[in-house]
Design a protein that fits this description.
It contains ten helices and 14 strands. The protein is of the alpha+beta class. It has two domains: 236 residues, Hsp33 domain (3-Layer(bab) Sandwich); 43 residues, CBS domain Like (Alpha-Beta Complex). Strands 1, 2, 8, 9, 10 and 11 form a six-stranded antiparallel β-sheet that branches. A six-stranded mixed β-sheet has the order 7-6-3-4-5-12. The longest helix has 18 residues. The chain starts with 19 loop residues before the first strand and ends in a 9-residue tail after the last strand. The structure holds zinc ion.
């Protein structure tokens, strides 16, 4: 385990479990899961923007869910989770690239979100809409998309509904995010699934014995408190042991999460160069065209002459 200085030495609470996804298995019961804690990476992503606290809070949860699910990807994969709605927050997006890179952003109506408190629910902030999980995998970027209505009160409820409808894998999920008085964000998430055994495609029907095991272990899992998911001084393996020690929990190597925006000047120039002349003329100011990456808020400026298709 990583050395952790006592929390009082640090201005901001961090631990060796931060920005790590810890996979685990409960072998006897054919269950697997993941525990994620986000700290510095979450703050880097949110710090690029000046989002109201309630917007940052739900985006933090989307990033946490994306870390949990994205870390299950095989090589050459990319997972995008989007929540689109007609509400105060019209769009929440997070990407996970294989290797652990993450990015995300939100689009919202500033006046509308100011009507809601800091901890307003996803349901209140988004209104009617849907949650889409898009997976691109393999060299030819084979694409798979699953969609569920934004029906639940919280993101974890919506995602649990998604698993019930699309994946037909018995799944329980908990997500928590919080900003402390210094402005520092922390988030945590816990996912538990019953492993399928060679019955791909069909609905998962648990035998009565399995059902009993699932009920017992998922009840233990759902007993986790938000304060435990968010506690910087409670290492991830210790939290798993606290929850599941009677079931024989086994942890695997953690997956490190980092901030990774894949925008760059050359790629953006080649995209802009394909814009119709009329649009470019509209964007131009004193011979300069500027574009801002919505994920990381980096502003790129181009001379109009740079953006001819030949130059790109
Ligand atoms: Zn960027």
């Amino acid at each position: 385990m990583t050395d952790r200085p006592p929390p009082h030495i640090q201005l901001r609470t961090q631990s060796g479990s931060d920005d790590r996804v810890l996979p685990f298995a409960i072998d006897q019961q054919d269950m697997r899961g993941r525990l994620v804690r986000l700290g510095p990476v979450l703050n880097e992503i949110l710090d690029a923007h000046n989002y109201p606290a309630n917007v940052a809070h739900v985006l933090a949860e989307v990033l946490t869910l994306t870390a949990l699910l994205g870390s299950m990807l095989k090589e050459d994969g990319r997972l995008t989770i989007q929540a689109k709605s007609d509400g105060a927050i019209s769009l929440l997006v997070a990407d996970y690239f294989d290797g652990g890179g993450m990015r995300g952003y939100a689009q919202f109506d500033a006046a509308a979100v100011s009507n809601y408190g800091r901890g307003a629910s996803l349901n209140a902030l988004t209104g009617r809409g849907y949650l889409a999980l898009t997976l691109e995998q393999g060299e030819d970027a084979e694409r798979y998309q699953g969609i569920v209505d934004l029906d639940g009160e919280s993101l974890s409820e919506c995602a649990t509904l998604y698993f019930a409808q699309s994946e037909q894998t018995p799944t329980r999920l908990r997500l928590a995010a919080q900003q402390d008085e210094t402005g520092w964000w922390r988030a945590g998430g816990l996912l538990l699934q019953h492993l399928s055994r060679g019955e791909d495609g069909g609905p998962r029907l648990l035998s009565p014995d399995q059902q009993e095991d699932w009920n017992r272990v998922s009840t233990l899992m759902m007993s986790v408190r938000d304060t435990e998911l968010l506690a910087a001084d409670l290492a991830s393996p210790d939290l798993l042991f606290r929850l599941f020690h009677e079931e024989g929990v086994r942890v695997f190597d953690p997956v490190a999460i980092s901030r990774d925006c894949r925008c760059n000047r050359e790629r953006l120039a080649s995209v802009l160069a394909r814009f119709p002349e009329e649009d470019l003329a509209h964007m131009e100011e004193d011979g300069v065209i500027t574009a801002t990456c919505e994920y990381c808020n980096t502003r790129y400026a181009f001379d109009r002459a740079e953006l001819t298709p030949d130059a790109a």
